[in-house]
Structures are given as C-alpha cells and as structure tokens.
Amino acid sequence: MHKVLEQIQKIGIVPVVVLKDAKDALPLAKALCEGGLPCAEVTFRTDAAEESIRIMSKAFPDMLIGAGTVLTAEQVDRAVAAGARFIVSPGLNPDIVRHCKEKGVPITPGTSSPSDVEQALSLGLDVVKFFPAEACGGLSMIKAMSAPYTNMMFMPTGGISAQNLNSYLAFPKILACGGSWMVKGDLIDAGDFDAIRRLTREAVETMLGFELKHVGINCQNEEEADHTASSFEKLFGFAKKTGNSSVFAGSAVEAMKSPYLGANGHIAIGTNSVARAMHYLESQGFTFNMDSAKYKRDRMTAIYLNGEIGGFAVHLVQK
Asked: How confident is the model at residue 163 (pLDDT cuts 50, 70, 90)?
C-alpha cells in the first residue's frame, strides 16, 4: 500500500470539501487540523479547487491534501502541481489510473461492483473508493463484495455520517471513510470555521470512542491484590476474578499482584481503534511507550502513554 494511503488509514476520516472561493482554503485547513483531522479531499468541481489546494498545501505542509472528482489526466497534473498528494475519482477510468501510477501519485477510483474491483486489481490497485456508498448498498454490499478480494481495501464515500461512521470503520476491509458532514457548504459559505472545528472534533471523538474501562491499583503482592479486590466485592458486589498478574473486582477495578507502570497504578481508556487513537494523540504532542504495546496478530490492542497523570500511568485498550 502507498505510504500516503497508510497515513489516511491512521487518520480514519477524509473530509470531502467543496470550495467555491480560495479565500476559504486557509481558515478551513486550520479548522480541520485544529479539530484533529489533518486531511482533506478538495473536489475539482469548482474553479477555486486548484488554488485552494495550493494554499492549503503551502500553509500546512504536513496535512494530507488530495484532489477529488478528478476526471481527466490534465486535472491530475494540475492537482499534483498544486500540491495534491492523492487523487480520488468518482468512477474507474483506466487511463486516469495509469496516468496517476506513472506519476507515482496514489489514486482511489470509485467502484460499486465486483467488475469494478476486478478492473482495479488488474491495474495494480489495492485500495478503491466505494461510491456512492449508502446508495449502492452500504456496508452490507461492501462485506458481500469484498469476500473474494482478500487484499482489496475500500474507502466508502457518499452518505457517511456520524451515525454510521463506526459501523463502517469496524469492518477490517475499510481503509477510511470519506464524509462531508463536518465541512458542510453552508458553513464554509458563512465563514463559520468555529463550527467546522467543533464538528471535526466531534467526528474524531465519535470515531475514537474514548471511555474509561478500568483503574489498576498497584499492590505489593498477590495477597494484597486479593484483599483489595475482595474489599470492592464486599462493598459494592463487584465479583472478584483472579488472573495471572492481577485480580479484578468487576470490570472497573484491577488490583495488580505486583507494582507495574505508574506510581499508584494505571488507568485504562478504551477506544474503537488503538492505532488511530495513537496516531491522533501523537499529533497532539503525546508520546508512547512502544515496549508496552500488545498485539493480536498484526493489530495493536493496547499501549501505554509515556509519563503519568496524578501518579497513574495511562494506557489505551481496544474495545
């Protein structure tokens, strides 16, 4: 998979943007980055698209800016010259795909049938857009269609919203979702970039789904751990369950049989995707203890942040 597409997978959501005036490009890019989505697919439906890509790419060089609704090789060239790092098209045009591959720029062409997917495979692609997603059968269609194509990933766009986002992203064949609900045209036209920043932040929070899973208490030995868990069981009816390294009281309290990370213990935060949560938190300046990472096959399921909060280490766990 192309490196740019791997980055998009970590971000999880690609805002699909229609800009009528290039003056809106800079504040929009700023709002998206501050909201936690340093990515945008700027559609070539308007005369402002090319200049908007140029402005956004120059001001935010680390932001993943792509061009969408690309229909011709000439548009590909203009978009890439302006700074676009990926190309998206509504359908699968073999000539456009070949042109992009010659230029070394990743393209996700639109598909909606097995025939489209097989043509994409014959062109050497491993990621395609599924468009229009909801109108073409949504997640059920992707699941049914993807079964024979084990190495193909999909980026559904069209009808994706905060309500169905996580249903799509939970399916392992989904690279990311394209959506426009956080960058609605009326908000851009009104210059309401605060609302776009808020909706972007809400989209990220919905995608990651952070919630407190349990609190770990460092005990000096197994006897103390058992006593601690028994106390919570007696007080609140939290059923005690003994494991290899700890004793749980219900699901919210974990008494460690020996001290682990954190002066007092640890706090576990559940998330819909440890990998995406880690990428997001790193973009906010946080760092991670890679030696603490745990995996199930090739999927990261847990990892600790560096440092402590109130004497507690903090780690992410896969829901």
From this structure: very high
In tens, the pLDDT along 99-145 reads 999 999 999 999 999 999 999 999 999 999 999 999 999 999 999 99
| Catalytic position from the list 3, 74, 118, 129 | 129
Percent above pLDDT 90 for the chain: 99
Q: Sheet containing 253-256: give its strands across.
A: 240-242, 246-249, 253-256, 211-218, 265-271, 312-318, 299-305, 288-296
Q: Which residue has the tokens 């597409």?
A: 5
Based on the fold, state whether residues 223 and 198 are members of the same structural domain.
no
129 given a catalytic annotation: yes
**Which one from 3, 30, 41, 294 is the annotated catalytic residue?**
41
Query: Could you confirm whether 143 is annotated as catalytic?
Result: no
pLDDT digits (tens, 9 = 90+) for 128-138: 999 999 999 99
Q: Which two tokens stand for residue 227?
A: 């006593």
If asked whether residues 100 and 128 sit together in one domain, one would say yes
The DSSP result for 50-94, as a single string, is HHHHHHHHHH-TTSEEEEES--SHHHHHHHHHHT--EEEESS--H
CA distance 180 to 43: 11
- Total domains present in the chain: 2
Residue with tokens 């994409």: 120
- pTM, 2 dp: 0.94
Last residue of a domain, one of 208, 242, 265: 208
Taking only Cα atoms into account, the Rg of the chain, rounded to an integer number of angstroms, comes to 23
* Contact status, residue 267 vs residue 313, Cβ threshold 8 Å: yes
The CATH number that applies at residue 260 is 3.10.180.10
| % of the chain at pLDDT higher than 70 | 100
What is the C-alpha to C-alpha distance for residues 202 and 205, in angstroms, rounded to an integer? 5
Yes or no: say if 203 and 195 are a contact pair by the CB < 8 Å rule.
no
pLDDT at 298 over 90: no
Cα first-last separation, the chain: 26
